[in-house]
Amino acid sequence: MPNRSKDWFAQAEHDLEQAIASHEDGRHDWACFAAHQASEKAARALHLAHGQEAWGHAAARLLGELPDPPPRELIERARVLDNYYIPARYPNGHDEGPAFEHYGSLHSSQAVEYARNVLDYVRKALADA
């Protein structure tokens, strides 16, 4: 099986660009979701670089299951991003109203920052691998 870690990381970087653009456009729900996707795909890239398959969508768990896990603080940041995987996309993720009404600039700016943190860590780890 070919090592596709570079492809996964390139997609993670592209998703982070989408998160930033969505934040700037005021589409905070999409910014949060794209930030989660960036962190999940970056974690998956690092698993692949280690010759491991990674399953699931929880970025915090994916990071925590790495052979050399990142600092706890980064895993906690990924845990925040994991909260955007479903509720940021679906109206039934909240008690009432469409999903986009539940997210604002504070959410999306934090999500972009946390995703950047994850990608920075993974970028360095991939270079060292």
Would you spell out the secondary-structure blueprint of this structure?
Layout: H1 5-24, H2 28-49, H3 59-64, H4 72-82, H5 105-128
Helix pairs in contact: 1-2, 1-5, 2-5, 4-5
- Assign the CATH class: Mainly Alpha
Structure class: mainly alpha
**Count of DSSP strands:** 0
The best one-word shape is elongated
Going by CATH, the architecture would be Up-down Bundle
Count of distinct structural domains: 1
Summarize the main sheet: none
Q: How many angstroms does the end-to-end distance come to?
A: 18 Å
Residues in β-strands, percent? under 5%
How many helical elements?
5
Please trace the helix and strand order, writing H or E for each element: HHHHH
Specify the CATH homologous superfamily. Nucleotidyltransferases  domain 2
Mean pLDDT equals: 96
- CA-based gyration radius: 14 Å
What is the CATH third-level topology name?
A: Four Helix Bundle (Hemerythrin (Met), subunit A)
Residue ranges: pLDDT <50 for 5 or more in a row?
A: none
* Share of residues in helices: 55-70%
3D architecture notes:
This protein has 129 residues and is an all-alpha fold. It has a single domain, classed as Up-down Bundle (Four Helix Bundle (Hemerythrin (Met), subunit A)). Helix content is 64%, strand content 0%. Helix 1 packs antiparallel against helix 2, helix 1 runs antiparallel to helix 5 and helix 2 runs parallel beside helix 5.
